[in-house]
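Deliverable D2.4 — example input (structure tokens):
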């Protein structure tokens, strides 16, 4: 029988920041840049997914703080947007931007655009200020 090494759970803001830092490390260490484009789409997709996960952690904590005991984890982007819309329009705009930049363009389409991905990462960092 082996012992499982468990890491103490970090507060949500620290965990989201850790995800965001991991995404930056993937991009800087593995994706490679040339002429404003990433060289390896595989790592762009990986980093985009990681950064988008950070955004979802932030949104979950934000909703948890706003809704208290009534909080349940949203099950779709539509659920996130409907619930965030009730509380903060600026955060809603950030969510829409991050969804497009990181989830759709970065993760699904695998853009090579450094500007697009960097804008998405900056938007996630701005979302961190909400929790």
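Example output (designed residues):
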């Amino acid at each position: 029988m082996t012992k499982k090494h468990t890491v103490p759970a970090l507060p949500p803001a620290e965990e989201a920041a850790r995800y965001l830092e991991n995404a930056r490390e993937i991009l800087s260490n593995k994706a490679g840049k040339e002429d404003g484009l990433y060289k390896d789409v595989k790592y762009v997709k990986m980093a985009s997914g990681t950064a988008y996960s950070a955004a979802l952690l932030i949104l979950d904590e934000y909703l948890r703080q706003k809704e208290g005991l009534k909080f349940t984890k949203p099950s779709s982007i539509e659920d996130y947007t409907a619930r965030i819309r009730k509380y903060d329009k600026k955060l809603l705009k950030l969510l829409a931007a991050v969804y497009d930049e990181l989830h759709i363009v970065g993760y699904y389409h695998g853009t090579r655009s450094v500007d697009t991905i960097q804008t998405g990462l900056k938007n996630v960092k701005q979302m961190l200020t909400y929790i």
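The two ends are 40 Å apart (CA to CA).
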